[in-house]
């Protein structure tokens, strides 16, 4: 088949021929079985391309995390919901008032530090004993004798006190305070970490025009690359220093995201769905 | 985002607009499907399909104009798709009629071959063929989006990629004895 005939066939299948050209081409198809077979094949290929594209779009939509429907939206689950509520109420009345902290669910982020009651207490003492002077506590916390001050999701109020009061300070000692909160506009975002207990500061960059990646990220110990449009709604990186190292989360456009390291791989940003973690991260943000 | 802005974004093939619509209207579509004997998974599936139908309409029709609010438009696509799905389920749950669904194994096999061959192309070839044949973009638009120097360069690239795809598919077809 000549290149001309191929182009004609392509234009025919893409609806780019005039009505007159369509008529004459269809006459040609009737009289040339080989061309007719080729037309069937080309039609299948074009449909195949469409099928592949639809599947990719669908996969993209399917990756978007949407919170499960509220239990009260389905009558079948109302009974279960009432039962669960009653159970929680009874448990609340029976349990002693000194509640153990609720552990962060493993599924949220594989690198999430383990938070223990002991560590929580250490953190509480550190914070509560900290004087009002801004510099003194940071130096104390950053000292090598106590390198692993716990970032405290169990007690976000205490953990966040210093960091929230001084969000623009991104020094190593500040990081060691437990939780420090930064945004792309916060001064000191790129301050290199000088702590002896591992990297604590991320250099963040955004790439808005990547044709392949949109709302994706890539992260190693020192660099966070965000793909997509982050200029309309400010994103915020939430840093949590824990026993097992530093964990990063991000807040953007009403959603929270875990940012485990990906090495050189680019991964989609999927919002967290665990209500308890979201609530705790939201509490940290409120104390900005 | 206003309806018109969303349309403009989709016309520019900005997939984030689709994601925005998905998040924004998910609950409405979920309610519609769940109230009409569907599950949450079915609602998700139907709404995703509806958004793809909408995407194809907006990108495929140069003069596409919304005749109603975007949410109403999407709702009606969802309703139609769900109605069809319910009809299909009813048919399948009724008495089996002999030969009602003759599975064309050859056709299925040919479709599988085409998908495998598309996936075997390099990323830029897959992209240019998708932009031309599915997104129906002009060579000028493709050149701009892919960072190619001009429309002629895009046309040459598309031609070579298509030739490669045709050749691979025909080789597989011959092996499967599908070609006459």
How would you describe the overall organization of this protein?
The complex is a heterodimer of chains A (288) and B (180). By secondary structure, chain A is α+β, with helices and mostly antiparallel strands. Chain A has nine helices and eight strands. Chain A has two domains: 60 residues; 173 residues, no CATH class. In chain A, helix 2 packs across helix 3. About 35% of the residues of chain A have low confidence. Chain B folds into two domains: 91 residues, Rna Polymerase Sigma Factor, Chain: A (Orthogonal Bundle), CATH 1.10.1740; 71 residues, Arc Repressor Mutant, subunit A (Orthogonal Bundle). Chain B contains eight helices and no strands. In chain B, helix 1 packs across helix 2 and helix 7 crosses helix 8. The longest helix of chain B is centred in the last third of the chain and has 25 residues. At the A-B interface, helix 3 of A face helix 2, helix 3, helix 5, helix 6 and helix 8 of B.
Entry keywords:
heterodimer; A: 288 residues; alpha+beta; 4-stranded antiparallel sheet; 8 strands; 14% strand; B: 180 residues; mainly alpha; Rna Polymerase Sigma Factor, Chain: A; Arc Repressor Mutant, subunit A; 76% helix; flat
End-to-end separation of chain A in angstroms reads 69 Å
Unreliable residue runs of chain A: 98-199
- The CATH superfamily of the largest domain in chain B turns out to be RNA polymerase sigma factor, region 2, helix turn helix motif
Query: How would you classify the quaternary structure?
Result: heterodimer
Q: Tell me the span between the first and last alpha carbons of chain B.
A: 53 Å
Number of helical segments of chain A?
Answer: 9
Helix content of chain A: 40-55%
Give the total of beta strands of chain A. 8
Shape of chain A: elongated
Secondary-structure map:
The complex is a heterodimer of chains A (288) and B (180).
Chain A: H1 3-13, H2 19-31, H3 33-62, H4 75-94, H5 117-129, H6 135-142, H7 156-165, H8 172-176, E1 179-183, E2 203-207, E3 216-219, E4 223-227, E5 235-242, E6 245-252, E7 255-258, E8 267-268, H9 275-286
Parallel strand pairs in A: 2-4
Antiparallel strand pairs in A: 1-5, 3-4, 3-8, 5-6, 6-7
Helix pairs in contact in A: 2-3, 5-7, 7-9
Chain B: H1 3-11, H2 15-35, H3 40-60, H4 70-93, H5 105-120, H6 123-134, H7 139-146, H8 151-175
Helix pairs in contact in B: 1-2, 2-3, 2-4, 3-4, 5-8, 6-8, 7-8
